[in-house]
Amino acid sequence: MTASPKTICILRLSAIGDVCHAVAAVQAIQRHNPEAKITWVIGKVEYQLLKNLPGVEFVIFEKSKGKEAFTLLKKALGKRVFDVLLHMQVAFRANWATRFIQAKRKVGFDWGRSKELHSLFIGERIKYKKEPHVLEGFFGFAQLVGVPEEELSNLTWDIPVSDKDKAFAEQRIGEGKQLIIAPAASKKERNWLPERYAEIAEYAASKGFTVSLCGGPGPLDKETADAIKQHCNVELNDFVGQTTLKQMLAMLARASLVIAPDTGPAHMAVTQRTPVLGLYAHSNPGRTGPYLYQDYVCSAYEQHVSAQQGKPVEKLKWGTRAKGADLMQSITVDQVKQTFDLICKDFEL
């Protein structure tokens, strides 16, 4: 842009990992253009993690309200006209929400990442990036409003956590070496086997780590945690469903190391610069892995997607997913132990 916009609307409703990635882009914009007023249209759950983000006004979009959610969005924004809308989500619900946001310019993803009629709701696009991580895709929006690319090496995630939430975490996550396992992704097929999590927990305990489980209040999270505890011969602290998102963030900040599949807490841990050992089989960790810790991913993605598509990964469309209910079984306990040891060595744990 030839001039820095004075009013910016961010549209990114979900999910937890993605809004964590988006924070890095938003705060890069704030550093480069501190006078800009930023309004972020966000989902209700995601807001619970990001509320009180410095210099950002939030407008909550409650998808559970169905059609009424769009009416409420229009009412919340009133007659405001933003200099630019940065439309960072291609889901149809988010695409439709742009109809209720007035902006002089509406910017969306490049052609390669456009889907669900995204192209019909924008006037211009960010630059194409070859094989970007999701975070780098969001950073393309920051570049469009004047942030230089070198800022990618100077990322920040200033997500406020209250003293009360920090005290909550301190009471539960003590001193010494702490491993947090966030075992459950949103879909069961993306989860590792409970007995293998249990074996890693035992291995970590033998290395002097206190081991805790964390996750959301959903039935899959609780079922997975219960199964791990049944297979485990060491004591585990079970905080699954026992924390708010802010409290969980504070706990992840106190951890020495986090182990997780492709799930929100993995990316929350990245914002706290806590090392993450990622477990991937369905999605490309180069695209969705823990951004600062992609060298510590145990991945079965490449072998499965190549076998299914009949091509090497480098010849497939970026973001192609592998499919199957049992792919995570290909990640062995020995692989994870070796990566665990590497993290301990590299971070002097």
From TrEMBL:
This is Glycosyltransferase family 9 protein. Keywords: Glycosyltransferase, Transferase. InterPro entries: Glyco_trans_9, LPS_LOS_Heptosyltrfase. Coiled coil: none annotated. It comes from the Bacteria. PANTHER family: LIPOPOLYSACCHARIDE CORE HEPTOSYLTRANSFERASE OPSX, TETRAACYLDISACCHARIDE 4'-KINASE-RELATED. One of its GO terms (molecular function) is ADP-heptose-lipopolysaccharide heptosyltransferase activity. GO terms for biological process: lipopolysaccharide core region biosynthetic process. Pfam families: Glyco_transf_9. GO terms for cellular component: cytosol. The keyword Glycosyltransferase applies. SUPFAM superfamilies: UDP-Glycosyltransferase/glycogen phosphorylase.
